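Reviewer comment 2.1 asked that we show a complete input and output for one of the modelled complexes. We chose the coenzyme A case, as it is the one discussed in the main text.
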Amino acid sequence: MDSNGLEGVVVADTELSDVDGERGRLVIRGHDVEELAAHHDFESLCALLWTGILPDAAARAAMRTALGRARVRAFARLPLLGDALAAADAMDALRAALAHLRAAEIAAGDLKAEITAAVAVFAAAWARQRAGAPAIAPDPGLGHAADFLRMAGAGGSDSARARALDAYLVTASDHGMNASTFTARVVASTQSDAVSAVVAAIGALKGPRHGGAPGPVLAMLDAIGTPEQAAPWIASELAAGRRIMGMGHRVYRVRDPRAAVLERAIERLLGAGVRSNRLALARAVEAVAVASLGERRPERRLAANVEFYTAVILDAVGLPQALFSATFAVARVAGWLAHIDEQLAGGRLIRPASRYVGPQPQVCEPA
Ligand code: COA
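Response of the prediction step:
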């Protein structure tokens, strides 16, 4: 139990994913994340999360077509989003843009593809607007990862970078009862709609203790600059009482298994000739951070979490730092939607309790 009285409290039964914090294992609908990221793309993960079955070639092609067509429809909505995409922060923009969707006006069978596509199209359009460039229309014939790179203006959707982004989207698609998934399930448990639940989840994902971490991780790597600078930089951050971003996790007491999956995907990308000098620096910084945190808090076992290598992989595929948290949403929306379905299907209203520690009513003497 933690100081909130919440750690380990079970609020739902789920078939979607299981996080083993002691052994460092993540299982998504019966498959290890390592296997999924190595052999499957985002379309396959959507099918797995939403139907429980890893798709065969025909089912995967159907999901690719459904997401492609939904991206085209989402792009047609851009002129109807008011000033949502003018927000300086990508997550503010995404929240406001998604709020324009109305679940009641979308056919129930299309809802998950529609929302998933909208997150990618709106996030990419925000990046273009921020760069002072026109939005790039989707290519429905491409995979979701390759088209997101294209629409975000991250250059060509060459297969090595699209594969690396696919590995990231798969890895980040679901992760047990994390804060944003819990948020989505709470909203769904009131029998509200999927758009409302996803908009609320985006709000939860935004914070630096959750999906807001990878941008600051990249800023940290840039500030450190060289492996030799890692030790003094980290020592001064810790002395100032600041946290090292990309380190520590509420559930994992060992290294987050997703960190290794992303590291491998970055290695493959470098092997394919994409240039990034940040992997070597990140590894050096991680080693120093783990050692420093271990000295300060030996009982806490703080290690790298998924965000540490998220920063490196998203930078290497050519996405701007300002788009990192929104790219997390591009992936995690698949999991949110599966959890929303599961909650709507069987879940009761989630209504936790709080402990009252305020003052007791005063007995007031009549004047
Ligand atoms: N750097 C330095 N100290 C850290 C730390 C970090 N990254 N993560 C945890 N700690 C320390 C805390 O300062 C706290 O010390 P204290 O008891 O002396 O105050 C102790 O470890 C426990 O922290 P707590 O906040 O209770 O742990 P948590 O389980 O709530 O934290 C995170 C989980 C992820 C919020 C936390 O590790 C963190 O803030 N990490 C950095 C942000 C990040 O990477 N977020 C992405 C998560 S995937």
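The first strand starts at residue 17 and ends at 20. We note this here for comparison with the apo prediction described in Section 3.2.
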